[in-house]
Amino acid sequence: MMKKALSIIAMSTLVLTLLLTGCGEKDKQTDLAVDKDKGTNVEQDKDKETEEDKDKETNVEQDKDKETDLEKDKDKKSNFKVSMVTDTGGINDQSFNQSAWEGLQLAQTELKILPSFLESTQEADYGPNLEELYDQGNDLIWGIGYLMGDEVLNAAEINTDKKYAVIDRSFEEAPDNLIGVTFSEQEPSFLVGYIAGKMTKTNNVGFVGGEEFDVIWRFESGFRAGVKTANPDAEIQIQYANSFVDTPKGKAIANQMYQNGADIIFHAAGGTGTGVIESAVENGKYVIGVDKDQKAILGKDEIITSAVKRVDKAIYYVTKDFVDGKWEGGRNINYGLVDGAVGIAPTSSDAVPEDILKEVEQLEKDIIDGKIIIPKTREEYDELFGE
Fold first, then answer.
1. 77-183: CATH number
2. Rounded distance between C-alpha atoms, residue 27 and residue 360, angstroms
3. Tell me: the pLDDT tens digits for 264-282?
4. How much is the pTM?
5. Is the pLDDT at 232 greater than 90, yes or no?
């Protein structure tokens, strides 16, 4: 009986041991499974990191591509060659040729163009100079001055693969590769004429022109209108030198006008006007400059103001449109007070009384608003002022 009981106990112990062993194996298998899952997660994390690295590399490559495109655009702009042919006054005329060159220099700084110029010493140089600039491979070629207009038009019609623009000339019909640029010279001339009419002590002022054509007639007509608006009793002497480069003749004309009672002279005569300024200094009289702030350039106290014409702005604006791919040829563009392209010189406050400057400021607003009509020709002047 005792043996049977022991046998049963032994059997029970064995079964229990087997059961415990089985559970242990299952736990190990479960732990292995968990470890395996952890390994899978690690692999997935590695794959995720690899994909992120690839994305980062792709973004870096895209950024590099963008930088390359920007560099290409920059290089493209810097490759444009833009040049100009001066009028006979030359690049250092302290007037509109110099202003035109300053416009190209600004375009060089801001737009990365490659600028250059050729000077004309006589009108016969216009055609050959334009041809030379074409042969040099310039993309945009400027002609500076009304008298060059026909030559520029001819060059544009022959060389349709290049762009052309000309200062102070408009066209009834221009080819698509040509733009004519003009200014409302009568507007600043009216303002300086008003100043002259207010400041004259002798009721006698003068106007000296270079050559006779519509641009200079706008200067003359606007000046006369301004003088008469300010001082209806003032006398206005007018004479042309028939040259923009004859300094001695400009001086001789001014000497005569001062001797005839004028105490203020306005010149629109380029280099010839330099002689007018010299005469004013020697005679102790007043003079009014043109195109640029000639008081700022020459430092002469006798220059009380200047009729400023921002050729530099026009050159820059049109050149910028060309560089930016916004060229619209076959047309004329006119710039005036409303564009900030003409006006009186900043140094005017050095000599012109404050009350007169305030009146001029109001006149500017009235001109822009269309309240004042300024004559552009002698005929229009006669109609408005009855002379």
1. 3.40.50.2300
2. 102
3. 999 999 999 999 999 999 9
4. 0.79
5. yes
Model confidence at 386, pLDDT cuts 50, 70, 90, reads confident
DSSP state of 284: T
Question: Which strands make up the sheet holding 342-344, listed edge to edge?
Answer: 235-240, 204-209, 264-268, 286-291, 303-309, 342-344
Structure tokens at 152: 């520029």
Q: Is 75 left (phi over 0), alpha (psi -120 to 50) or beta?
A: alpha
Q: Is the CATH number of domain 186-308+353-385 3.40.50.2300?
A: yes
* Calculated CA dihedral for residues 180, 186, 189, 194, nearest 10 degrees: -160
d(CA 306, CA 193): 10
The domain locations on the chain are: 77-183, 186-308+353-385
Q: Give the span between the Cα atoms of 304 and 294, in whole angstroms.
A: 9
| Contact in structure between 78 and 113 (CB atoms under 8 Å) | yes
**Tens-place pLDDT, residues 127-169:** 999 999 999 999 999 999 999 999 999 999 999 999 999 999 9
Pick from 29, 27, 9: nearest CA to 17 = 9
CA dist., res. 314 & res. 309, Å (int): 10
State the residue for tokens 């050149």.
319
- Asked whether the domain spanning 186-308+353-385 has the same topology as the one spanning 77-183, the reply is yes
